[in-house]
Amino acid sequence: GAVVSQHPSRVICKSGTSVKIECRSLDFQATTMFWYRQFPKQSLMLMATSNEGSKATYEQGVEKDKFLINHASLTLSTLTVTSAHPEDSSFYICSARSVGELFFGEGSRLTVL
Amino acid sequence: DAKTTQPPSMDCAEGRAANLPCNHSTISGNEYVYWYRQIHSQGPQYIIHGLKNNETNEMASLIITEDRKSSTLILPHATLRDTAVYYCIVRTTPNTGNQFYFGTGTSLTVIP
Questions:
Q1: By the CB < 8 Å criterion, does B49 face chain A?
Q2: Measured between alpha carbons, how far is B75 from A88 in angstroms, rounded to an integer?
Q3: Closest CB from A36, A97, A107 relative to B42
Q4: Mutation for testing the A interface, residue in B45, B102, B106, B107 having most A CBs under 10 Å
């Protein structure tokens, strides 16, 4: 199946700093990518839909100024958590659609101290 | 969005078939049913999807009722490596973004 890669897989940062997570589709082009967040023992929550060359569409309750999404090319989307706080600590997962199926990255675990 | 409901947890003996049910009573005519699973601290893995007809692949079978209000994922011979959280998802239609909204899932434990 198609491969989606995320980087970094783990990141620890200090409160108030910004963190960027990259999501790449390695063997296919993705006009649309999705970003999810998952807290321990909970399901995945869709944060936003990332569209190549245009603004992301955010789900209700997700702060667009805090979670900046850029989808500059057909193979790369980035999520930047700005001014991170401990409550932003979570597992962030990206996904991209290829021929009807949704393929997920390995996830990025963010810990904000 | 069509919501799904699944039992929170299930056990299955190794080597036996695991049957995981899902209710999606508000599904619309052109929405697909997808199944994914997630092993701890990894990204979800695609299993199978369908619209109306039953589907089978090398991993599992998907049985969708005639009224499409429920479905069952069948793992024919469960192994210990099938222990995971299984998510039943209804994909929204193209004109609403083709998005995948996850429900709470079923935590399947395969017992030796």
A1: yes
A2: 36
A3: A107
A4: B102
Write phi, then psi, for A40 (nearest 5 degrees). -55, 135
Q: Does A20 touch chain B (CB under 8 A)?
A: no
Encoded tokens for B77: 């011979």
Instruction: Give the pLDDT band of residue B1 (cuts 50, 70, 90).
Output: low
Q: What is the DSSP string of chain B?
A: ----B--SEEEEETTS-EEEEEE-TT--TTPEEEEEEE-TTS--EEEEEESSS-EE-SS-EEEE-TTSSEEEEEESS--GGG-EEEEEEEEPPGGGT--B-----EEEEEE-
Interchain pair A46, B41: CB under 8 A: no
Instruction: State the smallest CA–CA distance between residue B42 and chain A in angstroms.
Output: 5
**CA–CA dist B67, B51 (Å, integer):** 11
pLDDT, tens only, B31-73: 899 999 999 889 999 999 999 989 999 999 999 999 999 999 9
